[in-house]
Design a protein that fits this description.
InterPro entries: MetI-like, MetI-like_sf. This is NitT/TauT family transport system permease protein. Its main location: membrane. It is a multi-pass membrane protein. By secondary structure, the chain is an all-alpha fold. 76% of the residues lie in helices and 1% in strands. Strand 1 and strand 2 form a beta hairpin. The mean pLDDT is 87.
């Protein structure tokens, strides 16, 4: 006796429909490329620009070009690569890098923990702003290298003085950008929260802080770059270890390839740390993604 057929599929009742054929792999690849086209375009353009930069560097150093700027003593990319391979097998070089990263982590973290709350308070309360803003504006233009003698007198060890200089370098950009973010908060949002019965703590948490976050992360990114500048200056003058000391020691010993290696290492470390902050900002502020 024939089984009754399903009205929708026309198949016998109780029979599972046939599985859909697997989609070709190229369809998934095409979809992934379409979703990430902008990122791939940026990576491709960056790779081409970096390749052209290395080619220009190679040609200028190979032919010892002298045109206002002298490339007679500048090491070639191949010489810097040889220096890198030697340094990678040298534990002392890795110690220089790790110590610099530790100083950046401590100094920058302390600056963020102090500057962000202080900027929020200065932006919210007029009396605090009028009291502290003139002091910060007097101290802010002083370059980090000018703080080195004072830091040596203030702190008992070179390590503490270097961390202090790194702290100062990143503190003021974070503070200024936090203040700028607070000044741009829409007062209508503040009044609306007050009308709904929100207290001061809730207004800070729900209105001021989220509205200021884009500017705070801008300050963190700028502060990280200034922190590296301050750190390298301090390590060159008063440090005994660190990537800045490594670069200055290479200059003293006339090791040109090590000078370029130290500079490139500083740039890569600065780029990596700034990228981490931008990534953290995208996680914290999903509404701010483009």
């Amino acid at each position: 006796m024939a089984q009754p057929a399903d009205l929708l599929t026309g198949m016998p009742a109780g029979t599972a429909p046939p599985a859909a054929p697997p989609r070709p792999v190229w369809l998934y690849v095409r979809r992934w490329l379409a979703l990430n086209s902008e990122a791939l375009r940026a990576v491709l353009i960056g790779a081409v620009a970096l390749g052209l930069f290395l080619l220009a560097w190679h040609l200028l150093t190979t032919y010892r070009v002298v045109f206002f700027v002298r490339f007679t003593n500048v090491p070639s990319p191949a010489a810097v690569y040889e220096s890198l391979t030697r340094a990678m097998h040298d534990s002392k070089f890795m110690m220089h890098v790790l110590l610099s990263c530790r100083r950046i982590l401590i100094g920058f973290s302390l600056a963020a923990l102090v500057a962000v709350p202080l900027g929020l308070l200065m932006g919210r309360f007029k009396l605090i702003h009028e009291t502290l803003f003139p002091i910060t504006e007097i101290l802010r233009p002083i370059p980090a290298i000018a703080w080195v003698p004072m830091a040596i007198m203030l702190w008992p060890t070179n390590e503490q003085s270097i961390v202090f200089i790194t702290f100062l370098g990143s503190f003021f950009p974070i503070l200024v950008n936090t203040l700028h973010g607070m000044s741009l908060v829409d007062p209508v949002l503040v009044r609306a929260s007050q009308c709904l019965g929100a207290r001061e703590v809730s207004i800070f948490r729900e209105v001021y802080f989220p509205a200021s976050l884009p500017h705070i992360f801008t300050g963190l990114t700028v502060g990280m770059g200034v922190a590296w500048v301050s750190l390298i200056a301090a390590e060159m003058i008063s440090g005994q270890y660190g990537i800045g000391y490594f670069t200055w020691e290479a200059y003293s010993l006339v090791q040109y390839s090590d000078i370029a290696l130290g500079m490139i290492c500083i740039g890569v470390l600065g780029l990596g740390s700034s990228t981490l902050i931008r990534g953290l900002g995208r996680l914290v502020m999903p509404w701010n993604r483009t």
